[in-house]
Amino acid sequence: MTQPLSSPGSLSAVPIIERAVKQLSKLPGIGPRMAQRLTLALLKRKKEEVQELVDALGQLIDGVNPCPECGNYDQQTPCRICADDQRDRSVICVVEQHQDLIAIERTSQYHGLYHILGGVLSPIDGVGPEEIGIPKLLRRLNEPVREVILATNPTIEGDATAHYIQDASKTLGVRITRLARGLPSGSDIEYADESTLALALSTRSELK
Amino acid sequence: MRLASLLIRHFRLIGEASLELGSGMQLFLGLNAQGKTSLIEAIVFLSTSTSHRTHKEEELIQWGEETAYLRGRVERLDGEETLACGLEKKRKSIKADDVALPRVGDLYGRLRTVLFAPEDMAVAAGGPAERRRYVDMAIAQIDPSYIGLLQQYRRLVKQRNQLLKRMQLRSDNSAQKELAVWDAPFLDAAAKVTERRGRYVRALAPLVTEYYGRLADDGPCVIHYPAAEPETAEDIRARLAERLERSRGTEAERGNTLIGPHRDDMPCTLAGKSLAQFGSQGQRRAAALSLRLAEARAARDAVGETPLLLIDDVVYEMDNTRRARFWDSVDRTGQLIVTAADLGHLGARIEPAQIFEVNHGSIHPAAS
Ligand SMILES: [Zn+2]
Predict the structure, then answer these.
(1) Which of A4, A159, A194 sits opposite B145 (nearest CB)?
(2) Which stretches of chain B sit within 8 Å of chain A by CB?
(3) ipTM strictly over 0.85?
(4) Which of B56, B168, B193, B218 has its CA 20 to 30 A from that of B271?
């Protein structure tokens, strides 16, 4: 059993420390206690080392921007994927997050362009089509695009988002595909959770 | 299925108790407010990570303590397992053989229990929500994948409701367009939940009638689920889709999803009359007990193993004839956890395998 959390302010009443703790604790996965530990660790470091971090963060906000075409982060605009003439400009893969783009790039199987939504439709979180830039995506589809691959996550919201894009782009004459779903490779059927297994069964394919 | 040992720490009235439990009837004797119901609630919590008495989990932690802890060794046909639940004010952790279970649903089916409790009398004759909960929990214990389905369905209802609320406030064209993408998955999930419940209620219904007949002579007692009358998920979906179309206007007016399994009832009738409207106290009790007896049998039929029966002081208010008829109906081949203020309250011919005394939040084997 863990002990009850002490409030982040109780470490010290030093306003500058508190400010750093507060800012750090806004980051994903970092609670008030972790923010406190990080702040103390930074204080213990050599000044030059911390300056290095400050510089890196400064460069990050000045030097990296979302690509105006696809939303990918890069130092150049448009991003190097959009700027690459080796890539197939007639295919757009729609993903929820930047991480998904990285994961798909890692497979080296895909050579088209991307579109990063930055989220999924979720009325209870106040996220509608505007918030995730679907109008902008639809404008991109007016260019000579042959296929849109919907690579949103197989969650309720990811599915609804894919469905919405599909409905909205029906009149544009673009081929719409969805990533196949199934068991993660290298995993045991025994350990797959029920919904993955059920999905894998219902989307099973003929052996060729 | 057997709970072979149980450790309880700072749970409700119980400060600390460490018990070795055998097969057959384990009887816990004690006056009121000594910890008998706390014990039952602890086992329910270890089985489902919910309480049958409160939604506020911090109430389960003993007054003045920071954490509660439960650990039980379970023996099932498919092997042994140690389940542990740690409970803090805003957090709980559940483990099976020291491995954390990330989702609440992962706990289900590991320790299957059927609860007979005085609080439960509303199950047959109370509101529809009571019966939905009864059926959902019963299915979840024999088919844990049902929980994921149910959660998915609830989330879809919430998403739809949010859009309907927007439509309620102003005639919102964009919300209408968005709603369309939630309708199909909503109907899919609604049909699946209804179909699963329907299958369960169809297996349960004859057992309910049978057990009521064993307890009382004024039956037949019948439970049915009208929404699942078309038996296949496709037929149910088609009917739901029709009803959804018809309720569109009202939905937008009220800002709420008005059809689907979250609104359904599985009404109980006695000799053709609504139990909720016309049932006497005694009839309601007998019906509630029949539902639980039927649940235990249905669980045994489904998984081939008798669930653990938790019988919390329910025979106290019955006369001797009813008590005898109740005990004759209870499957005593498995393990039973029974509580009473006095051995004499159980009725004649009851021979517990082991007796414990519950006193001021402590539990000890009775001196023989
Ligand atoms: Zn780009």
Answers:
(1) A194
(2) 66-67, 69, 86, 88-89, 144-145, 148, 152, 155-156, 158-160, 162-163, 166, 174, 177-178, 180-182, 184-185
(3) no
(4) B193
Rounded to whole angstroms, how far apart are CA atoms A63 and B194? 54
- Domains and their CATH numbers in chain A: 11-63 (1.10.8.420), 73-206 (3.40.1360.10)
User: Token match 């995506």: residue?
Assistant: A137
A1: closest CA of chain B, how far (Å): 7
Q: Could you say which of A124, A193, A195 has the minimum Cβ distance to residue B159?
A: A124
For chain B, the average pLDDT equals 93
pLDDT in tens, B71-94: 999 999 999 999 999 999 888 999
Domain extent listing, chain B: 1-110+306-368
Per-residue tokens: B309: 């029966």
Q: Does A4 touch chain B (CB under 8 A)?
A: yes
Which residues contact residue B188 at a Cβ distance below 8 angstroms, ignoring those fewer than 6 apart?
Answer: B237
Token couple for B250: 């009202």
Identify the DSSP state of B338: E
Tell me the shortest Cα–Cα distance from A86 to chain B, in angstroms. Answer: 36
> For residues B293 and B116, what is the distance between their CA atoms, to the nearest angstrom?
9
The topology (CATH level 3) of B1-110+306-368 is: Rossmann fold (3.40.50)
Query: What is the tens place of the pLDDT at every residue in A30-65?
Result: 988 999 999 999 999 999 999 999 999 999 999 999
| This model's pTM is above 0.80 | yes
